[in-house]
Design goal:
mainly alpha; 110 residues; 0% strand
């Protein structure tokens, strides 16, 4: 029983350490961005905006407008369109967007 408790504590500590490592990796990525007009900054901001809009879409109470859409739904659609356009038009954006997506997925898995 005591041994099982120690394993659980160790597993919990390792999980917290892994989360901290991934958070540090994300902070280092953001800190390495030198220009706010860079591809890296655009990808990071778009991804954060997308996550916020997606959360709002699922959690905010809503009222339909004349077109039958909600504000969170419109915002999510607009951000998705910006991401789609930048993916197709901005060199290097797709790779940077995928990179930040992978970092956040690592954080969620930790």
């Amino acid at each position: 029983m005591e041994e099982e408790h120690k394993r659980k504590e160790q597993s919990s500590a390792e999980g917290a350490l892994q989360v901290q490592r991934v958070k540090d990796e994300i902070r280092a990525y953001v800190d390495s961005i030198e220009l706010q007009d860079s591809v890296q900054w655009k990808a990071y901001c778009d991804y954060v905006d997308f996550l916020q809009a997606e959360r709002d879409f699922h959690t905010q109470p809503f009222t339909l407008d004349r077109a039958g859409l909600t504000y969170p739904e419109l915002r999510l659609g607009l951000i998705s369109e910006v991401i789609r356009q930048r993916t197709n038009e901005v060199p290097g954006y797709k790779q940077e967007y995928e990179h930040i997506t992978q970092l956040v997925e690592k954080l969620n898995a930790a």
